Amino acid sequence: MDTTNEESNIIDENQSITVIKEMIAVSRIKLRQDGILFIVWGWVLFYVSFSGYLTGSLVMTYQIHKVLSYTGIILAAAAALFTIYYLIKQRKKVQTYIGVSLRYVWISFFLSTVLVNVIQMNVLHSINFQLQHPLFMVLMAFAVTVTGGILRQRLIIIGGVVFGALALTASYLGLQEQLLLEAVAWMVAFIIPGHILFAKRNK
Amino acid sequence: MFKELDPLLHSQVRLAIMSLLIGVKSAEFSWLLENINTTKGNLSFQIGKLKDAGYVAVYKSFRGNYPLTTCRITDKGAGAYQEYVAAIEEYFKQIKK
Question: Is the pLDDT of residue B73 over 80?
């Protein structure tokens, strides 16, 4: 739409509809999600869970065990730094209700995980990791499902529901098997939808 | 009988501004300028008209050393926009008959 004169450009009803449609299309294209953070965090958390499963299940040297563990910590720190960089770089000139809602969902998720640990300390006087993992998975399932609903991405919603089902399954299992289930959950709820969103970003 | 269209919204630039703002929480002046493709002066003038009518709220601040203008649609503006769209829809329904 080109309106270069200083007049207010009185229009007819057909042009009104055209303007409204064009502007709605602009908003949709500009505010589309690219799934980058889903991919980054999906792979990092998949690595952390799967390497945790491997180190606990397989016989390996102390050095390999240490390398796998430290790599997870380094990757998580790198992902956190990348997230900060990405959010600053992507700071959009427009604030959407979707963006604001997602921010609240993920800040609430993070605070809830902290509260779960504090509550565990208060009640059990220690952190029971076998209980902590399914509880975190439930919180994650909730956050992912709501995120999918906000973004209207059915695949993310399904990922969230699967995450919840795996959380329940994990509560019947030992810590090692829980880690394996978690790895599957990251794949279903983060990595696959993230790559699909990324592939669709310019379409 | 057709319902009279709000003359303030029945203009290309002002309708474009409102159509962009209706779907977002707030937007910077430069974002509106990128998408509406009018001149800076005209956009500023039309935003001023919408602001005077109470349809849009304008916030002036600074980012670094640069002035930053942010716009947000008001409840009054959202109501007027909805009425305008409803009137347009009604118009096309009548035409089809």
Answer: yes
Q: Examine the pLDDT at B28 and tell me if it is beyond 80.
A: yes
Determine whether the interchain pair B42/A4 forms a contact, defined as Cβ–Cβ distance below 8 Å.
yes
Predicted model pTM: 0.75
What six digits make up the tokens of A42? Answer: 């999906």
Highest mean pLDDT out of A5-9, A19-23, A98-102: A98-102
Cβ of B31: how many Cβ atoms within 10 Å? Answer: 20
Distance from CA of A180 to the nearest CA of B (A): 41
C-alpha dist (Å) from residue A104 to A98, A153, B53: 10, 18, 33
Could you give the strand order of the β-sheet that contains B66-73, starting from the edge strand earlier in sequence? A94-95, B26-28, B66-73, B56-63
3-state secondary structure of A37: helix
Distance from CA of A202 to the nearest CA of B (A): 17
| Subunit contact A97:B88, Cβ cutoff 8 A | no
Chain A residue set in contact with B, beta carbons under 8 Å: 1-6, 8-11, 13, 15-17, 19-20, 22-24, 26-27, 30-31, 92-97, 99-100
Q: Which amino acid is at A168?
A: L
Task: State the complex-level ipTM.
Answer: 0.73
Residue A92 has pLDDT above 80, yes or no: no
**In this structure, are residues B7 and B52 in contact, taking their beta carbons and an 8 Å threshold?**
no
Give yes or no for a contact between B47 and B56, defined as CB atoms under 8 angstroms apart. Answer: yes
Instruction: Match 């209706």 to its residue by tokens.
Output: B22
Among the listed residues A158, A118, A120, the one whose alpha carbon sits nearest the alpha carbon of residue A141: A158
Could you say which of B20, B30, B45 has the minimum Cβ distance to residue A23? B20
* Percent of residues, chain A, with pLDDT higher than 90: 49
Token pair of A192 as six digits: 């696959």
Give the span between the Cα atoms of B37 and A14, in whole angstroms. Answer: 20
